[in-house]
Amino acid sequence: MARRVRITAAEARRIALAAQGFERARPAVANDVRHFRRALAAIGVLQLDFVNVLVPAHFLMIWSRLGAYDRKHFEQYLYHSGEHTEQWAHEASIVACSDWPLLAHRRERFRQWKSSPLHRMPDRDKFLLDILQHVDQHGGTSSHDLPKIDGPKRKVGDWHRSIPRWGLEHHFGTGDLAVRHRLKNFQRVYDRAERVIADVHRRESVNERDAQRELLRKASVSLGIATSHDLADYYRMKIGDVTPRIEELVEEGELSRVTVDGWQDPAFLSVAARSPRQIPGASLLSPFDPLVWFRPRAKRLFDFDYRIEIYVPAAKRRWGYYVLPFREGDRMSARVDLKADRKASVLQVRQAHLEAGADRQETAEALACELQALAGWLQLDAVNIEKASAFEKTLASALNS
């Protein structure tokens, strides 16, 4: 993309969507490893979330870009190709194994959460050493493979994890252990990092400054166009660390300063950014999709004030428990609260809301197609709308036509 000085708001939206892989129409068949690899490369950081009211959010992110795909095939690729691994990146995330050395400084600084019961164990060091010895002897280990242990009494607000799980996650945080794969119940299976991460990545050494700069460069590629706060948020970096590294990337030609119409903050355009004339298709988005996970950016890009309301008391929810954004082209045109009722084999539309400026009939027809396709992928037999606002009635009519 030719270097620019001024970018329109519409161009910024298209650049951001293209960077995340939405400039391509979904493939007719999306079970080739090349499809998975391309989608993951665009996202860069696949945030993990296993809330299963619909489908775990990271699986939905791949659906948004590829459409129907074989989840088992995808998980096989994810955990057994040697190309990706779990790490603390944005949050708990899937990243490329080549990112392992870039996150070394975080593993070196890892400390247990304040709420961890390990802080209150008198024999903590021995307990942690015993875990490593068990993994050395037995290989892949889940928390259920370790002896049960009664830890300190839980305090109000403590996470409800077993003591063995706390111990395994401690070693995951420090990098002594890595995630080999996940069980059907989504539980992690850990092994020694040297058995999971290839030596070429594990033995590479990158100083913290260079690692920060490379993480920011990768963030800029995945974002396309971004403010300094957008760039910092992608790998959860401190803004004070980001500022000098951004200047270095500008000097190197990886980023250029631009002004975006309507944006108050200065923006940076990645040298890899693409600006297609239009963005095809429509897609439901995960609550943890990089397009919307940073609320100030979602508002700035799409004039879309988004918040997942799982943790909002029911009486105070505005949009619904598990509400997903709906993208049409380069706009967010609706949001819909969904639940997969697997027992009844129904995709429940608990609420649907039309965004200001969207065409009710066009959006209803596009959303109906997406809901039917999603239900089919989830092996649900029907889509059911529970309420009857004007938009929901139009949506119901589109589903039945």
Structure report:
It is a single chain. A hairpin with a 2-residue loop joins strand 11 (323-328) and strand 12 (331-341). The radius of gyration is 22 Å and the shape is globular. Helix 6 (124-138) packs across helix 7 (163-174), helix 10 (208-223) crosses helix 11 and helix 10 (208-223) crosses helix 12. The protein starts with 5 loop residues before the first strand and ends with a helix. The chain contains 15 helices and 14 strands. It has a 5-stranded mixed sheet. It has a 4-stranded mixed sheet with strand order 1-8-9-7. With 401 residues, the chain is α+β, with helices and mostly antiparallel strands. 39% of the residues lie in helices and 17% in strands. The mean pLDDT is 94.
Provide tags for this entry.
401 residues; alpha+beta; 4-stranded mixed beta sheet; 15 helices; 14 strands
Briefly characterize the structure.
This protein is α+β, with helices and mostly antiparallel strands and 401 residues long. It has helices at residues 9-19, 33-43, 57-66, 71-80, 104-108, 124-138, 163-174, 193-196, 199-202, 208-223, 228-234, 239-252, 295-302, 360-377, 390-400, and strands at 6-7, 46-47, 84-88, 92-96, 177-182, 188-192, 225-226, 255-260, 267-270, 282-284, 323-328, 331-341, 346-354, 382-385. Helix 10 (208-223) crosses helix 11 (228-234) and helix 14 (360-377) crosses helix 15.
